Amino acid sequence: IEQMVSKIVRDLEGQGESEISSETIGEAVMENLRTLDDVAYVRFASVYKNFREPKDFEQALAELSGEDEGKPASTRK
């Protein structure tokens, strides 16, 4: 986790912006969790994207398994 956090910080600092939106940080965390741990990714995504229905979890799991390639991910906030 510490390595992931360090990577996210370096990536965000590398953008050269003085301010980073919480949306950008959330997306970076999701992207990195996805490569680190599928369960952690789904748990974080369920809160971050405000999952409200079982289909929201199904879509996230389909994205992880590659079944949803090419379809845009729905973001609910």
Give the key terms.
65% helix
Task: Offer a concise description of the structure.
The chain is 65% helix and 0% strand. It is an all-alpha fold. The longest helix has 15 residues, at 22-36.
Written overview of the protein:
The chain has 77 residues and is mainly α. The chain contains four helices and no strands. It has helices at residues 2-13, 22-36, 38-48, 54-65. Helix 1 (2-13) crosses helix 2 and helix 2 (22-36) runs antiparallel to helix 3 (38-48). It starts with a helix and ends in a 12-residue tail after the last helix. Residues 70-77 have low confidence and may be disordered.
List the helices and strands and how they pair.
Elements: H1 2-13, H2 22-36, H3 38-48, H4 54-65
What coarse outline follows from CA principal-axis ratios?
elongated
- Rg, rounded, reads 13 Å
- The percent of residues in helical segments reads 55-70%
DSSP helix count? Answer: 4
Question: What is the β-strand count?
Answer: 0
Quote the distance from N terminus to C terminus. 25 Å
Order of helices and strands: HHHH
Biggest β-sheet, characterized?
Answer: none
Name the beta content range.
under 5%
The low-confidence parts are: 70-77
